[in-house]
Structures are given as C-alpha cells and as structure tokens.
Write a structure and sequence with these properties.
Layout lengths: L4 H14 L10 E8 L3 E9 L13 E4 L5 E4 H4 L3 H18 L3 H5 L4 E5 L4 E5 L4
Parallel strand pairs: 1-5
Antiparallel strand pairs: 1-2, 2-3, 2-4, 5-6
Length: about 130
C-alpha cells in the first residue's frame, strides 16, 4: 500500500517539528514507537541512551520523547491489518530518514528503529561501517 502524498507531507512536517525540539546530549539513537488506535496507527518518536542491534534489537532507555504529541495514520492509509501497518510505517519513516529536512538529526545517531511497543523491533537505519 502506498501512503498518500498528503499523509507523507503531514508526517514529514510533524517529524520536522519534533526533531527541532531540544534533544538531550545523552541521546545516541532514535526509535519510532507504534501503537494501535481505534481507527489509526499512532506514531511517537523516542530518543534512547543506547543502541544495540546485535541479536534481537530493543531500544535503550528513553532520553527524549514526543510524549502525547503523536502522529496518527488512518488504517485506510496504513493498510487493513497490523503487518501492512508496520510495512507502511517502515517505508514512511525510511523515506523521512532519506529526505526529511531534519533527518540529519536521525542520521547523526548510532541507529534508528521502529516497532509496535509490544512486538518485534526493526532497525531501519545505521551508519555505514
């Protein structure tokens, strides 16, 4: 499923604003938390104090968070079931990492992950070795 240009531009604007906030110098990586809402997938950005992608990836302790400022993607845009939601959100966040105006904040880190808070975590980006 392809995310609409409107959803993409709104997500990019939200992420730009979030990543313009003061971020603790203890932040070494970022994670995009996904939550299931009533009719949408909710997205929250979290900064973490560590990044370990050996074995099963899991984000480290939180140093930054968008908190209650979440971004919502309606199921009609994200897909019919959670596997499609995850893939849609992975593509959207990966596009942001590639070309978002504040993406350098993410690319200065040790890595960026994504996942539902009660599910598997996926590494989307890490610096080239």
């Amino acid at each position: 499923m392809c995310m609409s240009e409107l959803v993409k531009s709104e997500f990019f604007a939200w992420a730009d604003e979030a990543l313009s906030q003061p971020i603790s110098t203890d932040t070494v990586a970022f994670h995009f938390n996904l939550f299931e809402g009533t009719d949408s997938v909710h997205v929250q950005i979290m900064g973490t104090e560590s990044f370990d992608d050996h074995g099963r990836y899991w984000p480290g302790d939180k140093t930054f968070s968008t908190g209650e400022d979440i971004f919502c993607v309606l199921f009609k845009d994200a897909g019919p079931e959670w596997p499609e939601w995850l893939e849609s959100m992975k593509r959207l966040v990966s596009e942001y990492i590639e070309s978002g105006s504040k993406s350098e904040v993410l690319r200065r880190s040790k890595g960026v992950g994504i996942g539902f808070v009660d599910g598997d975590m996926h590494v989307l980006w890490r610096p080239a070795a």
